[in-house]
Specification:
This protein is an all-alpha fold. The protein has one domain. It is built from 13 helices and two strands; from the N terminus they run ααααααααααααββα. The two termini are 21 Å apart. The mean pLDDT is 84.
Length: 284
């Protein structure tokens, strides 16, 4: 399985267009924020100290949550291409076990998601510092890395289940475009969750990747919020956190990090299980 995983990694990173398009949603979000959204939100916080640092950290958190979705989908495109080109028949007829083939696709997609998320983090931190912010501390960096692993694990499981329904490159390409377009809205990145209609807010709150975004925000925005909201009433801080999707609230209950982590772990288990059932059924 290790050799097959390495083969998938080489195929993905050798195709520069695949790497680019897997990050296309990230580039779109960065472009919209840098050209339009960033100035709008910073100007709305003109009386708050460190507004640029605060909003840059907010958008970076969203980017980290989204990156593993789009890049793992790009990684699973290798599996679709292999099916389309009948290459999988060669693998099946080889000494490789079917479980090793499936495992190779999954592990390579997970590794690609983690690598691309780390690259996004590095570039985003450079952007934050260039805008007057600060690099994250070492302790915070470990937390972010752990969240990247968790978010990628959950997102990879969902993407695997989705692509298990596709057997053609055209269908997969269409699904990739739709997911890449909608992911920014569903996770409350293009517009803060507090500005969305109530029905849409509920969709955002129950979407697993949104919980990954909230966890990233709680870590990355801790330092800038301590500066921007120094001396502010606790109610004002809570209202801002709910507006920006730093925390989610169902009725009178505020979601703490533990339930969000549990949701991501449960998502991973459920969707990997469903994916394996579907892939096994296809082979019979």
């Amino acid at each position: 399985m290790i050799g097959f995983t390495l083969r998938n990694l080489k195929v993905f990173f050798k195709d520069k267009s695949a790497v680019f398009f897997s990050l296309l949603a990230v580039f779109i979000i960065i472009g919209l924020y840098a050209l339009f959204l960033g100035d709008v939100w910073v100007s709305s916080l003109e009386n708050i100290s460190g507004a640029r640092f605060l909003m840059d950290s907010w958008i970076v958190a969203g980017l980290l949550a989204v990156t593993s979705v789009t890049t793992s989908m790009g990684a699973f495109g290798i599996m679709i291409d292999d099916k389309t080109k009948k290459i999988t028949k060669d693998f099946v007829s080889s000494p490789l076990k079917r479980s090793s083939i499936t495992g190779g696709y999954i592990v390579s997609a997970f590794i690609i998601g983690v690598i691309m998320s780390l690259i996004t983090l590095v570039l985003a931190e450079v952007y934050i510092v260039a805008g007057g912010g600060e690099f994250v501390s070492l302790a915070m960096l470990f937390k972010i890395f752990a969240l990247i692993l968790l978010a990628t694990f959950a997102n990879t499981s969902m993407i695997l289940f989705i692509i298990s329904f596709f057997n053609s490159s055209s269908a997969f390409g269409t699904a990739s475009s739709i997911i890449g377009t909608l992911i920014g809205f569903i996770t409350g990145i293009y517009l803060p969750i507090g500005q969305l209609p109530d029905t849409v807010q509920w969709i955002v709150k129950i979407f697993p990747t949104s919980h990954a975004a909230a966890l990233f925000r709680q870590v990355l925005m801790a330092e800038p919020m301590s500066v921007s909201f120094a001396g502010a009433p606790q109610t004002a801080i809570m209202q801002y956190e709910q507006l920006m999707g730093v925390t989610f609230k169902f009725g009178e209950t505020t979601v703490t990090p533990a339930p969000s982590i549990a949701i991501l772990l449960l998502t991973s288990a459920v969707f990997y299980g469903l994916s394996i059932i579907r892939l096994s059924a296809k082979k019979k």
